[in-house]
UniProtKB/TrEMBL annotation:
BP-aspect Gene Ontology terms: carbohydrate catabolic process
Keywords: Glycosidase, Hydrolase
Protein family according to the UniProt entry: Belongs to the glycosyl hydrolase 1 family.
Enzyme Commission numbers on file: 3.2.1.21, 3.2.1.86
GO terms assigned for molecular function: 6-phospho-beta-glucosidase activity
Protein name stated in the entry: Beta-glucosidase
Originating species: Vibrio maritimus
């Protein structure tokens, strides 16, 4: 296998999805704390108030990571635990993450810190509508400075924004994340400000001389054309411009793609460039590209929309959007790919798509890549003897590890592989029904039970993968 000796075999999580302790030790409300309390906003009205209680169980969980032999753990810091109102530092919150980082280092696990994983302080949303105001640039940069000062000598890898394309589009287009609106121009406005905030954080990181590397994690589903018909090929190209390059070009080149901007302009959508914006984006180029990969995406031209994407059983086990049409439907329509099987949630299973993604990023940007998320969301069954036989997850991950190996042999530089997720956790749209972890957490939407941890079969599989540096995938 092609994995280098120091390859980061890791796993990942997000603060709101695991920590719980929503209002303990000075933590303030995030937009997700408030949003999830509104009946109907989440699947079976589930929240992260307790989640899997990592706040109190972090030592137990990290000891399990040590047992597995995990080389890296990507976790996010809750802005409202560090700064409850978005501005005022909470010493107990700062101390908590010192404790987590110190425990990881004690166990020989490299900490990868995600600065923002969707939990904006509600106070800033109330004051100036959060990402829709340029006032957030100063507040976000100040928050980053606190983290850099506190943890900069301990953390070698930093992820600034997690899936900026997802939290902006689901919040401002699909209406299934806060602030739960559908307005494409507002989406583009908020996203531009988030891009400026990301660049400001990267710029400040470098100005402060932090020794680590910083990047952003982008949710990338490489685009395919459903057919060889030229109009379908152009549709897939248009989808790549608007759904991918509008972010990745900014992270890696410090500028928006020309064709993507032109396509938006034709729809009457404009980016609000102000003095200094382009210079700031250029000053905020990332050190690596973080890649969150779950599936590829297949498209047809609007006039060939006879076979659109499956919905299957997703509506029964998930919050789904009721937005019927968005402006970009004039350019491309999502379609099924008959060559691919689907997960329980009707996501296309496409290991070769990961190889495609790695190659495209390498060819266009020539940056190192950290695979910051990849995993299978599925139904898991806990047996009476406390086992979870998740051979389907092992098969999924094995195929993707093989694809990474092939991409490395193709010439891609891959820093590490963080599966999503280490433990089962709260899902933004699926409560506790959709499980991703190596460690089963015994709770559901109705009851927290005892939050007991159980090692799945995949736990032992990944343990062997790590022990052999990817040589043993059986």
């Amino acid at each position: 296998m092609a994995f280098q000796e120091n390859f980061l075999w890791g796993s990942a999580s997000a603060a709101y999805q695991i920590e719980g302790a929503a209002n303990l030790d000075g933590k303030g409300d995030s937009i997700w704390d408030v949003y999830s309390r509104v009946p109907g906003n989440t699947f079976k009205d589930t929240t992260g108030e307790v989640a899997i209680d990592f706040y109190h169980k972090y030592e137990e969980d990290i000891e399990l990571m040590r047992e597995m032999g995990l080389k890296a753990y990507r976790f996010s810091v809750a802005w409202t635990r560090i700064m409850p109102d978005g501005r005022t530092v909470n010493p107990k919150g700062v101390e908590f993450y010192h404790n987590v980082i110190n425990k990881l280092i004690e166990c020989g696990i490299t900490p990868i810190l995600t600065i923002y994983h969707w939990d904006l302080p509600q106070a800033l949303q109330d004051e100036y509508q959060g990402w829709e105001s340029r006032k957030i640039l100063a507040d976000f940069t100040q928050y980053c400075e606190v983290l850099f000062n506190e943890y900069g000598d301990k953390v070698p890898y930093w992820v600034c924004m997690n899936e900026q394309n997802i939290f902006t589009s689901l919040g401002y287009v699909q209406k299934i994340h806060p602030p739960k609106v559908s307005d494409y121009q507002r989406f583009i406005n908020a996203n531009h400000i988030a891009s400026l905030a990301n660049a400001s954080a990267v710029k400040r990181f470098k100005e402060m001389g932090i020794k680590g590397q910083i990047g952003a994690s982008f949710a990338y589903s490489p685009t395919y054309s459903k057919t060889a018909a030229p109009e379908d090929v152009i549709a897939a190209e248009n989808a790549q411009e608007i759904q991918d390059l509008l972010w990745m070009d900014v992270y890696a080149k410090g500028a928006y793609p020309k064709i993507g901007l032109k396509l938006l302009e034709r729809l009457g959508i404009h980016i609000d460039f102000q003095d200094g914006d382009k210079e700031l984006l250029k000053a905020g180029i990332c050190d690596f590209m973080g890649l969150n990969y779950y599936q590829s995406a297949t498209f047809v031209a609007p006039e060939n929309r006879e076979q659109t994407a499956q919905t299957g059983n997703a509506a029964q086990v998930s919050v789904v959007s009721d937005v019927a049409r968005i402006p970009t439907d004039d350019y491309y329509v999502r379609a099924d790919n008959e060559h691919l099987k689907m997960t329980d949630w009707n996501w296309a299973i496409d290991p070769e798509g990961l190889r495609v993604a790695l190659r495209r990023i390498t060819s266009r940007y020539n940056l190192p890549i950290l695979i910051s998320e990849n995993g299978l969301g599925a139904y898991d069954t806990l047996t009476e003897d406390g086992r979870v036989h998740d051979d389907y997850r092992i098969a999924f991950l094995k195929a993707h590890v093989e694809a990474i190996n092939d991409a490395i042999e193709d010439g891609c530089e891959v820093i590490g592989y963080c599966t999503w997720s280490y433990q089962d956790l709260f899902s933004w749209l699926n409560g506790y029904a959709k499980r991703y972890g190596f460690v089963y957490v015994d709770r559901d939407e109705e009851s927290e039970k005892e939050l007991k941890r159980y090692k799945k079969d995949s736990f032992y599989w990944y343990q062997r993968v790590i022990e052999t540096n990817g040589e043993n995938l059986d």
